[in-house]
Structure formats: C-alpha cells, structure tokens
Amino acid sequence: MMIRAANYGLFALGVMVLGSWNSKPASATLPIHLEVAMEAGVPITAPQEWAKLLGKLDLRRVRLRSARADDQPAIEISESTAGPRIKLLGILNRRNELLLPKHRFKPHDLSVMRAYFEQLAAEGTEADADLGRFGLTKKQFFAVHADFSRVVAFSTKDLTAAEVLRKLDEKFSLPVIRSKGTNSRLNRSPLGIELRHMAAGTALAMALRQEGLALRPEKPRGKPLQLRIVPYDSTLETWPVGWKSEVSIRQLAPKMFESLTIEIASHTLAQVLDVLTPRLGVPLILDRWTLEKNAIDPSKIEVKISRGKTYAKRAVDRILSQARLAGELRVDEQGHPFYWVTQFGKESLRAAN
C-alpha cells in the first residue's frame, strides 16, 4: 500500500510518505479508497500524523491532498466481481478533525475509526449509502418487498393475527421480531376478515392493524435486516396497509363504475355493505381498529339512499359518509386492488406512494 500526500505544508518541500503499517495479510485489506482533503490552516504536523494513523487501518488506498472549494464528505459505492468498492472523501479541518459522511474523528479515535471502516466494508452499501423509506437502502427495500410479495395461500377469517403471522413467517426469508407487549394483542381474537390471495405485506399489515399493531422493516447497524412487530404509533414509519396504484381507478376496478338503480331505507351499514360489496368487484375491508377507537359500529348505524340511478362506488361512498367513514382504492404488493374503509386522519393515513 502506498500513502501519498499532495503538496501541502511539510509536503510542499517535496516530502513523499511511503510505506505500509498493515500488520494483516493483503487479503484482509478493506476495499476502501480514502481521499483526505486538507483545509488551509490545519496544524503543520497533521498530514504526517494522519498519514501514519490511517496507514494502520488496513485501507486499500489512502491519499492526502489540499482541499478544493467544493469538497464535502462523500461516499461512493460500486460493485465489482470482488465485491463492493468504496470510495470515501474526507475533510481534515483546522481543528485537526477528520470529517467523513455522518462521522467526525480525532487522532486519538483510532479504535473507533477502525470499527467504522470495518463496519463500512462489512455492510457495503448498507452502512452510509443514501437511505430511503424505513431508513433502508434500495437493495434492502427490494429484499423486504420480495418477501411481502408472496401471496397468502390460506384462509385467514377464523385465525388470530398470531396464527397469520406464524404461517407467513414460515415463508419469509427475513426474521420477524416481536417487540415487548405485542404477544397478548396478537392472540386477542380471530380476525374475521378474509385475506386469502392477497400479497403478504399488505395482508400482514392489515391483520396487525386490527389489533393496534404495525410492521416495521429495519436494519440495525451491525445486525441483519429484519421485520419488527411494534405497537402502532402514528409518528413511526411502518409498512402501509396498501399502496397507491399507478393505474386509474376505472382501469383497476371497472365494476365499481357500472350503473345500477338503488333505494335504501331502514337498513344498517353492515347489511348494505354485504349487498353492495360484490358489486364493487374488489374486496372491501373495514379498518376495525379505527372503527373501535371511534365507537363506530356498522351493525347499529342505519343508512339510506333515495331511489335513483348511480354506480356502485358512489353508492358505497354515500353510505360510508353517513357513518363518518370513507373508502380508498388501494393495491397490495402484487398490484391487486381492494377497497379500504376507515376514518382518515393522523391515525389512518392515505395509501402510500
């Protein structure tokens, strides 16, 4: 390994620092190329001090140079047949601190720096790459989505959330972790909803929501990607109960817009939904948790519609509004549509993008 320093400070005299302080075999070298841009005004001994320190960390390549006006700590990760290749740009500031993406080190932080670089190499794109939804990289998100795109192949109507979770967990490649206090809710009562043929992610999110729980993919540093069952919290990003579709509603569920003549009087919301749901052509699923929180009982709320021509979706929306509810057409991870009925607000958000 060769460590070079561009013309700066002592190095302006043409001094070149060569050598290797690597006590491990070359095969153990971390696939990290580190370039350190030194600000004007760093301590005069800093380049030589940092060159020696960084040489002890088994990095594949280290280069020190003068900073340019647009330099900022950055990371660039690319794949090769030998695995990830990680390029880091760090800034050595006037306070003799090495600034790396989301991290700041001083010369005495050698062991902490070693752990940082080893973790970065071990996790590749996972450690400090741009993170998106749920704090996951794109690769991690696709791994979760692949698990959640499996289709539920069994009836759920008479099962508890715990039983649904157990059956799905057998098919998932990712581990499912239960947070403290969730077991009792999972075993509370049968769901009473049929999620067969739905994609597993949306189905599980739906089953957990019925018990005031939610599902959160997470990647703790130094631990594998996992799925965690947590109590529902509107401030916490969790796996959604369905997604917005890129296809128009009329294309996705054409039966919803077929004409019908209807008149409703002296019937409960539950009774009318039983009759109208087949006319929608997609499953209609009630957000039972929200209904219970707001004391909305479809079996006790009377609804009515004057005789006239309309279409199925409009008729359903009209009777839902009489119960302070609203519906939204969503799709699961397979793109299959369903009609989600809830009371919108901070406790029940719209479909995720």
What's the helix and strand layout?
Blueprint: E1 3-5, E2 30-38, H1 46-54, E3 59-66, E4 74-80, E5 83-92, E6 98-100, E7 103-105, H2 110-123, H3 138-148, H4 161-169, E8 176-178, H5 183-186, H6 200-209, E9 213-218, E10 226-231, H7 249-252, E11 259-268, H8 269-280, E12 284-286, H9 288-293, E13 302-311, H10 312-321, E14 326-331, E15 337-342
Parallel strand pairs: 1-3, 2-3, 2-5, 8-10, 12-15
Antiparallel strand pairs: 4-5, 5-6, 6-7, 9-10, 11-13, 14-15
Structure, briefly:
The chain is an alpha/beta fold and 353 residues long. Helices cover 25% and strands 26% of the residues. The strands form four sheets. Strands 1, 2, 3, 4, 5, 6 and 7 form a seven-stranded mixed sheet that branches. A three-stranded mixed sheet has the order 8-10-9.
Structure write-up:
- It contains 10 helices and 15 strands.
- The protein has 353 residues and is of the alpha/beta class.
- It folds into 3 domains: 3-126, no CATH class; 133-231, Baseplate protein-like domains (Phage tail protein beta-alpha-beta fold); 249-342, Phage tail protein beta-alpha-beta fold, CATH 3.55.50.
- Strands 1, 2, 3, 4, 5, 6 and 7 form a 7-stranded mixed beta sheet that branches. A 3-stranded mixed beta sheet has the order 8-10-9.
- The longest helix has 14 residues, at 110-123.
- The model is unreliable at 1-27 (pLDDT under 50).
